[in-house]
Write a structure and sequence with these properties.
about 260 residues, alpha/beta, seven-stranded parallel β-sheet, three-stranded antiparallel β-sheet, 10 helices, 15 strands, about 40% helix, globular
């Protein structure tokens, strides 16, 4: 297959699936991973995708659920900065909820020295914290999603509804002044909605790429959120919007 033909086919796959990994493309086209990375670099230069070490993705589409393996290595600097900012508002003795987002996984990694009760439906966060003696870990079980490495469904919802939380840290797919805080995965959105209503304080954790977009299903409005933690630099319109909705904005600048 000609290189240009392969590149065009890869672009078609990305546009259809919204995210791909280097490994699956290498297997699909029977070429080396370096060849695929070269193709993805060209597509990124043409503005057709955003590249990570493990793959590539696009932001478009209301039902765009980016592959977890791609999400884990996307915007790492942003997520690290957001996690450190979150730690500043978490206090020893708090009971917190961490959702099954890759940003919440970064939060889990920086709170290991604290004395906390942590509820989560993320298998990755459960694995991260299960051997930390000062963390009282409560695994919120239920139906298991292989794609999202998380539990969901009626059992999960009923279990979480038993608890009261000091703080919840919720990610999302997109944030819009017009449409609120939205997500792509309906099953996981339900659990996020419950966490919002069971928490004294709710914080949305979202890197800069998630602003000014709308996804498939609404998690909540801004008026039920206490704070937004992000590396996004808000313009006047966003600053006014936060102020009008009584939302605290906590800026988490990256080192880059």
């Amino acid at each position: 297959m000609l290189a240009v033909t392969r590149k065009n086919k890869i672009n078609d796959i990305i546009q259809d699936k919204k995210s791909v990994t280097v490994l699956e493309l290498a297997d699909m086209f029977d070429v080396t991973e370096e060849t695929i990375r070269r193709d993805l670099r060209l597509l990124e230069k043409e503005g057709l995708c955003m590249r990570t070490y493990g793959g590539a993705f696009i932001q478009d589409g209301v039902e765009n659920n980016i592959d977890l393996n791609v999400r884990k290595v996307a915007y790492v600097d942003s997520k690290s900065s957001i996690a450190l900012e979150c730690k500043k508002i978490i206090h020893n003795g708090d009971t917190i909820f961490l959702d099954p987002s890759t940003t919440a996984l970064f939060i889990a990694r920086v709170i290991k020295d604290m004395r906390l009760t942590v509820l989560t439906n993320s298998i990755l966060i459960i694995s991260e914290l299960c051997d930390i003696p000062n963390i009282h870990l409560i695994a919120v079980g239920g139906n298991y999603s292989i794609e999202n490495k998380a539990f969901y469904g009626l059992t999960t919802a009923q279990f979480l509804n038993q608890y009261y939380l000091d703080k919840s840290f919720i990610s999302c797919r997109t944030l819009s002044m017009e449409h609120g805080i939205t997500d792509s995965v309906e099953s996981l959105c339900q659990i996020r909605q419950i966490a919002v209503h069971r928490s004294q304080k709710t914080y949305i954790v979202a890197d800069h790429s998630k602003f000014n977009g709308t996804s498939f299903i609404k998690i909540c409005s801004f008026d039920v959120v206490d704070g937004i933690i992000s590396d996004f630099i808000p313009n006047k319109a966003w600053n006014d919007f936060f102020k009008n909705n009584n939302v605290e904005y906590l800026y988490a600048p990256t080192n880059k």
